[in-house]
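Exercise (ungraded).
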Amino acid sequence: MAQTLTIKSVLIVDGVGPSCAKILESHGLSVTSIPKISKEQLLKEIPNYNALVVRSATTVTPDVIEAGKNLTVIARAGAGVDNIDVAAATKKNIMVINAPGANAMSACELTCGLMFALARNVVPAATSLRAGRWDRALYTGTEICGKTLAILGLGRVGTAVASRMIACGMKVLVYDPFVSAQQCEALNTKKVELDEVWPEADYITLHTPLIESTRNFINKNTLSLCKKGVKFINVGRGGLIKEEDFLDALNDGTVGGAALDVFEEEPPKNPLTLQIIQHPAVIATPHLGASTKEAQVRVGQEIAEQLVNLIKPKTYNTPLAKVQ
Ligand SMILES: NC(=O)c1ccc[n+]([C@@H]2O[C@H](COP(=O)([O-])OP(=O)(O)OC[C@H]3O[C@@H](n4cnc5c(N)ncnc54)[C@H](O)[C@@H]3O)[C@@H](O)[C@H]2O)c1
């Protein structure tokens, strides 16, 4: 039987798109939107609400959860729940939900765009021309077609990247212990073990969650097994790459190029991370994977529809994305 909760009042913070409030209000919920909220104000306001919707600016710490005497659900309008203390919420019987699928297409398109940008030296060439130079020979690129791409993690984003890059003529290898060889074949990709990834791949793109088994996935050891000049794209999570080892590999040419959207610490302050960001072979973006107008609308809708389903089961087809 579908789970129902008491949700009458909802506090939306962090500038979640207006579609979220609109859907909730159309089902009779009382909604307050405070796009920018301080910790003090949140602690003062939270006892008045049954549901809290956050994006990434607000950190839902145990004291916020403690103060939320009437909270039944905390919703993250986005994929990860790094900014919510899920254990503290669960202890208080507060459900945590997220919107895992809403930004997959945006993350996929950034990944593919960065791959092309790396292949054709788009960023350094444009920077050089802006500075008044005309360095055509220096920025000769390579074609993507015919190259081998390894996708680590064939989930929502990885799958979307696979079909697009196959259409561009790449051979796609997949490493994902939770996906079968048949599923990979159905996508015209090949399931491989990790030891096949490193020597074969011209490009490696990371789309796994950051968990114990994937932390520092890319490290001194795995880098040493890679093709000289391999290119990496990380629109997954900071922490998948051991940054110290990665900088060494950039400096000695083991890694020929990298496009990084996520970092161990965000915004990055560590001098080592800053050296990676400033490295000439690197294109770095400030966690833009989900930053599109379409994804912002979709996350708000996906969260609102789940909240409505929690009080009026089966109103929308959107499945409940409960975080354990
Ligand atoms: N940069 C951004 O703004 C942005 C936007 C969207 C998603 N993301 C991140 O991208 C990643 C992928 O997102 P998604 O929506 O595709 O997630 P998903 O849960 O749909 O897919 C993750 C995949 O990783 C696989 N996996 C788990 N452990 C693995 C392991 N040890 N080795 C290899 N594969 C493993 C899973 O089987 C699954 O297929 C997540 O870390 C997510 O947080 C970042």
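Further reading is listed at the end of the chapter. For now, observe: Residues 29 and 179 are 40 Å apart (CA to CA). The first strand starts at residue 9 and ends at 13.
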